[in-house]
Specification:
The structure holds three protein chains of three kinds.
Chain A (H helix, E strand, L loop, with lengths): L4 E3 L4 H8 L4 E4 L5 H6 L7 E4 L9 E3 L5 E4 L4 H5 L2 H6 L1 H8 L4 H6 L2 H5 L6 H4 L42 H6 L3 E6 L2 E6 H4 L18 E7 L10 E6 L10 E10 L2 E10 L6 E2 L1 H7 L6 H11 L11 H19 L24
Parallel strand pairs in A: 1-3, 2-3
Antiparallel strand pairs in A: 4-5, 5-8, 6-7, 6-8, 9-10, 10-11, 11-12
Helix pairs in contact in A: 11-12, 12-13
Chain B lengths: L12 E3 L12 H6 L14 E7 L5 E5 L2 H6 L3 E5 L29 E2 L5 E7 L2 H10 L3 E4 L16 E2 L3 E2 L2 E3 L2 H7 L2 E9 L11 E7 L2 E5 L5 H12 L6 E4 L15 H13 L3 E4 L15 E9 L5 E13 L21 E10 L12 H18 L4 H7 L17 H12 L11 E2 L5 E12 L5 E8 L4 E4 L9 H12 L7 E4 L16 H25 L14 E4 L2 E4 L2 E7 H8 L3 E8 L3 H6 L3 E12 L6 E11 L6 H21 L30 E5 L20 H16 L17
Helix pairs in contact in B: 7-15, 10-11, 14-15
Chain C lengths: L2 E7 L2 E7 L6 H8 L18 E4 L2 E4 L11 E4 L12 H8 L9 H14 L6 H7 L10 H21 L1
Parallel strand pairs in C: 1-5
Antiparallel strand pairs in C: 1-2, 3-4, 3-5
Helix pairs in contact in C: 2-5
The chains are: A alpha+beta, B alpha+beta, C alpha+beta.
């Protein structure tokens, strides 16, 4: 790890000023940043520690059902906040399916949004990576890429975004509050992360010094609470990144789907909202045929970026299952194995 | 009460109550309080930190470093490269013995695998040494990497594993196959795997003149000491190795490796104690791995399901500069009755670190392939997999015709099947679902591992106060040597456990042999027992020749040593305490010596193996292909059980490795560069707690009068075998899909 | 640039003058305070061997910069037993043979203490397994670990009822 200057600003304004300098990076829990620094992937010359900034560690529930979550709220605290998990159960389930209890105790909401890809070629300094070094090339193409992107990738980058948390946030229309030198602005989560295009080094809309201060979920997002799930297929039962995941949330009226929200994880360099699939479900019966139609729509335009064609059909099946699970109703409590296919299914079997 | 005579010497018997007891780990309190001191926990005064710089290319030459950047980093004291590395007396590329593997210790600028050490940075702090290593930024002249089992021209190795013939033939396989009613030919692939002990390889080295003191985890202190002595040109007696605890070894800490030597060299260079610990990713190069295999198995049976032939031709890989050939095909030699058997190996030379012994070397990859093939054969014969195995039960070792020294495999099958509920298994696949609709499958496998012994020595002392001291330089890497060997030591001296002091884990103690091959308890145990017998014999000699002793004249009848007293064998009422005997003889202590080693006559006469039967349940998501091994029952027979609690833990741990082999772990290598792309514990998946919800290990009684005087076989490795195949077979039974490429990935199961 | 950091470690106050802001809590404990019970298995938050309680919460010490934890309270494996008496989790690990090589054990135990304090697992073995899945054990002692956690949790609950 390179040496760096460690600064502890007392106010958000001081933090933004300190982090605007070239080479500066924000430090919260450090669960991702320190990993990157130890690998030499990130070499910031100044760490701006935000842990002491006032007011960023609160979960504020609005009377209308919406919520504002400070950027320093720890993943575990958010997942176990009773009001939050009641209103946004798919988000709680996604949080609890990520990493380990130790990491969830440390990792913050803001940091989760900003975590970097797990692409092995991004981590391997001897490999070419356009994200690490613009213009260097992408060794993931033609490499070991069975878990890489099938949506939204470009010739310059086929990595995926590793967050679980962001997937239901994308589905539920979250907004990111950003503090900058010019003041505070809101950015929809869907616009927060950028697809790689020709500039995969630009991962978000953040400009130097910009600080994520909170994430908001609107009141309407809580209207899906009775039918909201997160489902994550992994290569071991726990403590693993998603091969593919999906968040599905339904608003049911008189036995039909009034409104659906769907997003996928592990398929693209950002949490992937499936608007077409949602549209296909409006007014539909909650049955296997509807879910399969939605799943087909969700993967429209998907293409393998390497040896990962299986992920496309896998993702369709995961979307369909997540929808079926959501239709079956949110369980009383997050299952013992959160978001796992091996979590006991409430009610009747949802398997084919 | 283990009332079995512990000695083969007929004159005197020793009875003890320790062997067979499920004692808790004697090192448990140290380990649960953080007091157990592992190598990297040492911090001698003046110590510096050393960090390796390793190669990123697989093959080529180092052209240079940015030495100024590294040396200019605050805290960096020295950078060791081939230019300034202290000289060695011995050649690190020499091959004095088959157990001396070539190592990379900055002897030149060649790079022969990724993660090869190319320099060492020594600094006042760990942070400075780590960054100094990063700043070195080696420049390379790279050559194309040879990667994968088709990456080079295969060659025929002379020997495989620890020196076995590379091929074996018994009967005529081709005619057996021609005559068969059912035939199978299938190819199975297993990946490269890395030991990934939780404790990274570490050494703290301190020189005092030409004497060397090191703390390092070692499964073989005596061999390590000898190799260091040869490399540095100093006498072995001048080298002290402390290795009281290993944070797991699994074969990767058996023999001296390059990073350990670099730590010693670094300490030499700077004239101060040095600590060198590998970073996790650096464990994917210079400290061994299990090579990948591709095994082509051919089998035939007659109409009734009896084998007519079994053949396995295995391809594996070794490094470009040394030979370790994973003996994958050999597991067929002793398992199933067949009139014709043929095994062979070839290998390719790749730009990797040299493969090495890794828990059940050969047996683990061989077993998953063989047990999968046996399952396929049973299916072809329309037979239940257990019935098929019983049909082909080997009453003598098929490859040699020797009888087994003992073999309670039928009982393992029976007890395991009963406990698991195997009789309720539907024959056809894809017939079982759980209440949630997940596919459920049941599979089984036979476990086997040879009962080996190395040579080991021990010393036992009876002291004037009636207590005992037993010493052997054994290695506890988690198997429970501190406990099990102490139990043997107590019984060996006829003393309660709390009246002996057991010393181990130090190179100044008698060489206990290598902790490998599941042979350590047998080897060191027999040495300890013999040392105890020797001490008791001397004590009995004192007493029976002394007119003042109640045991006078009992020399012909013999004595029984029990609970700190010697009793006349023909009149147990006449006895005397150890302390009294010694006191009257005016002796402060009496010493016995013992050696444990295989008996060549018994080995020639008998085939010696531990056996077991493993039954697995898996659940598979029918659409996603995600697999979870929800239940495992293993029943094992391995001769005498010294400590059932510890033996059960060994079996369960081995079963977890079997699950990992079948479902989880593999090194993912870039075909262009030869670099392992998942050299970390996030993406090199070993099972987590949630992956193994239900494990049961049954200890099946087995008495073996031939294997060694204690009747002990090994338990450390056997449970991987059988389990891996059982899990794979359960996946077939759940899904109807035969996976022949391991670990089983979800894309193999989802039909897309 | 020096940083002066106050920490309470196992109940004892420490003033750490940090010349190097790169020092992690794990390396501080091991290499500067010589509390080596906390182990380094991966140094990247991928194995759990370095788990300590940081302000009462189980955390990977390898990813915690000391500089960011001024005023924190740290409990390590060395501070768990009190007055020569093993903590119930420690005792249960021995009783259930929930360890082999012992290298992951301090992290497992601190994680178990954290899990019990969190109170989300209840008596459900599946929740314990999931909750302990951030601690790798290459020896494969998981079955004993799960039994030990459940056993110790029960003992602690009965103990606090009795008190």
């Amino acid at each position: 790890m390179n040496s760096f200057e460690f600064v502890r600003p007392a106010t958000v304004a001081e933090a933004v000023a300190a982090a605007s300098a070239p080479g500066a990076a924000y430090h919260a829990a450090g669960t991702n940043l320190l990993d990157l620094m130890k690998g030499g992937v990130a070499r910031p010359t100044r760490l701006v520690d935000v842990n002491r900034l006032p007011g960023l560690d609160r979960i504020e529930h609005a009377p209308d059902g919406g919520v504002r979550v400070g950027a320093l709220v720890r993943n575990a605290d958010l997942a176990h906040d009773p009001a939050f998990s009641r209103r946004f159960p798919a988000v709680a389930e996604a949080l609890l399916s990520g990493a380990s209890a130790q990491l969830r105790n440390a990792a913050t909401v803001g940091g989760n949004l900003l975590q970097r890809t797990r692409c092995a070629y991004f981590y391997d300094l001897a490999s070419a990576c356009n994200k690490r070094e613009p213009g260097a090339g992408c060794d993931a193409r033609g490499g070991e890429n069975r878990l890489h992107a099938v949506l939204g990738w470009s010739g310059s980058c086929i990595a995926t975004h590793p967050s679980d948390f962001c997937v239901p946030l994308a589905a539920l229309g979250a907004t990111v509050e950003i503090e900058s030198k010019a003041g505070r602005r809101d950015v929809p989560l869907l616009d927060f992360h950028r697809l790689p295009g020709a500039a995969p080094e630009r991962e978000t809309v953040l400009e130097p010094g910009d600080l994520v201060v909170a994430v908001r979920l609107p009141a309407e997002a809580a209207r899906f609470a009775a039918h909201a799930r997160y489902l994550k297929v992994r290569e071991r039962t726990s403590y693993a990144f998603a091969v593919v995941s999906a968040a599905a949330a339904l608003r049911m009226e008189a036995g039909r789907i009034a409104e659906a929200r769907i997003a996928l994880g592990g398929v693209a360099l950002k949490p992937w909202r499936a608007h077409d699939a949602e549209a296909a479900l409006a007014g539909a019966q909650p049955d296997a045929a509807s879910f399969r139609r939605a799943a087909e729509a969700a993967l429209t335009g998907a293409e393998p970026s390497g040896g990962n064609a299986f992920k496309i059909e896998l993702a369709r099946r995961i979307v369909a299952r997540a929808l079926a699970m959501a239709a079956g109703g949110t369980p009383e409590r997050v299952p013992a194995l959160p978001a796992s296919p091996f979590a006991p299914a409430p009610g009747a079997s949802v398997h084919v | 009460m283990s009332d079995i005579a512990l000695t083969s010497a007929p004159a005197h018997l020793r009875h003890g109550s320790s062997i067979g007891q499920p004692l808790t780990r004697r090192d448990g309190p140290l380990k649960v309080t953080g007091e157990a001191r592992y190598a990297a926990d040492n911090h001698p005064p003046g110590m510096l930190f050393a960090v390796l710089a390793v190669s990123t290319v697989a093959r080529g030459r180092v052209l240079g470093f940015d030495l100024a950047a590294a040396k200019g980093h605050p805290g960096v004291v020295e950078v060791m490269t081939p230019v300034n590395r202290p000289p060695l007396a011995g050649d690190p590329d020499g091959k004095e013995s088959p157990f001396a593997f070539r190592m990379d210790v900055l002897q030149n600028d060649r790079v022969r695998y990724p993660q090869q050490p190319v320099a060492v940075v020594i600094a006042e702090t760990l942070e400075a040494a780590t960054e100094g290593a990063a700043l070195l930024a080696p420049r390379y002249e790279a050559e194309p990497a040879r990667v994968g089992l088709d990456g080079a021209e295969p060659f025929a190795p002379k020997v495989v594993g620890a020196g076995n013939p590379a091929s074996a033939r018994h009967g005529d396989v081709e005619s057996g196959l021609r005559a068969a009613s059912h035939r199978l030919e299938a190819t199975y692939e297993t990946p490269a795997q890395y030991h990934n002990a939780m404790e990274p390889h570490a050494i703290v080295a301190a020189w005092d003149g030409d004497t060397l003191s090191i703390d390092t985890p070692s499964q073989g202190m005596a061999l390590t000491q000898a190799r260091i002595a040869g490399l540095f040109g100093i006498p072995p007696a001048g080298i002290t190795i402390r290795s009281p605890f290993l944070g797991g070894g699994f074969g990767s800490k058996g023999l001296l490796n390059g990073p350990q030597v670099l730590g010693i060299l670094a300490a030499r260079l700077v004239g101060r104690p040095v600590k060198l610990v590998l970073r996790r990713e650096q464990m994917y190069g210079p400290v061994g791995h299990r090579a990948p295999t591709r095994q082509t198995i051919r089998m035939g049976t007659d109409a009734g399901g009896a084998f007519t032939a079994i053949a396995n031709q295995a391809r594996t890989a070794t490094s470009t500069f040394d030979d370790f050939i994973e003996p994958a095909a050999d597991v067929a030699h002793a398992l199933y009755a067949t009139p014709a058997l043929l095994t062979g190996h070839d290998a390719v030379r790749l730009d990797t670190g040299t493969p090495m012994f890794m828990r059940a070397p050969g047996e683990a990859p061989g077993s998953i392939a063989l047990e999968s093939a046996v399952d396929e054969m049973a299916e072809a014969c329309g037979m239940d997999p257990l019935a098929f195995r019983l049909k082909n039960y080997a009453e003598v070792e098929p490859s040699s015709g020797r009888p087994f020294s003992s073999k309670a495999l039928r009982e393992c099958y029976a007890q395991g099947a009963e406990r698991f509920g195997w009789s309720r298994r539907p024959l056809a696949p894809r017939r079982m679902r759980d209440e949630a609709g997940l596919l459920v499958g049941w599979g089984m496998g036979t476990a086997i591992f040879p009962a080996l012994m190395f040579a080991g020595h021990a010393r036992a002392v009876l002291k004037a106060d009636g207590t005992g001291v037993v010493e052997t330089g054994a290695h506890d890497m988690g198997q429970g040597a501190w406990t099990a060997l102490a139990q043997i030591a107590a019984d060996g001296l006829g003393l309660p456990l709390d009246r002996i002091e057991f010393r181990s884990g130090h190179s100044a103690l008698p060489d206990a042999g290598l902790a490998g091959g599941s042979a350590h308890t047998a080897t060191a145990g027999v040495a300890i027992d013999r040392a105890g017998a020797d001490a008791i014999a001397k004590l009995a000699g004192l007493a029976t020749r002394d007119r003042r002793s109640p045991l006078f004249g009992a020399g012909n009848a013999g004595v029984v040593a029990r609970d700190g007293r010697l009793h006349r064998r023909d009149d147990e009422a006449r006895s005397e305490g150890y302390a009294d005997i010694l006191a009257r003889a005016g002796l402060g202590e009496i010493e016995g010596r013992g050696t444990g080693a295989a008996d060549p006559a018994a080995q020639a006469a008998f085939a010696m193996h531990a056996h077991g039967a493993v039954f697995a349940e898996v659940k598979v998501d029918p659409e996603f292909g995600q697999v979870r091994c929800t239940r495992l029952v293993g029943a094992f027979a391995a001769g005498r059980v010294v400590n059932p609690r510890m033996v059960r833990s060994q079996y369960k741990g081995g079963m977890v490795w079997g699950v990992s082999f079948a479902l989880h772990e593999q090194a993912v290598t870039d075909g262009r560069t030869g670099r392992v792309m998942n050299a970390n514990l996030a993406e090199y998946h070993v099972p987590v707690n949630a992956d193994v919800p239900s494990l049961e290990a049954i200890l099946v009684h087995e008495h073996d009068p031939h294997v060694n005087p204690l009747g002990i076989k090994g338990v450390g490795e056997i449970a991987i075998t059988g389990t891996a195949g059982a899990v794979a077979n359960a996946v077939w039974h759940a899904t109807g899909v035969r996976c022949r490429h391991f670990p089983i990935g979800l894309e193999q199961l989802i039909g897309v | 640039m020096g940083l002066s950091i106050a920490l309470t470690v196992n109940g004892a106050p420490h003033r750490v003058e940090l010349e190097d802001p790169r020092v992690t809590l794990l390396d501080l404990l091991r290499e500067r305070l010589h509390l080596t019970g906390t182990k380094k298995g991966c140094d990247r938050g991928q194995c759990g061997a370095c788990t300590v309680l940081l302000d009462g919460r189980r955390t990977n010490a390898c990813l915690a910069l000391v500089a960011a934890h001024d005023g924190a309270d740290v409990l390590t494996i060395e501070g768990l037993a009190s007055g020569g008496e093993l903590h119930p989790v420690q005792a249960a690990f021995i009783a259930h043979d929930a360890l082999q090589c012992g290298f992951c054990t301090p992290g497992q135990i601190m994680s178990a203490v954290g899990l019990i304090a969190e109170g989300h697992a209840g008596n459900d073995p599946e929740r314990v397994r999931e909750g302990m899945s951030g601690n790798l054990c290459r020896c494969g002692a998981y079955a004993g670990i799960t039994e030990a956690v459940l056993d110790a949790q029960g003992r602690l609950a009965r103990g606090s009822e009795a008190a």
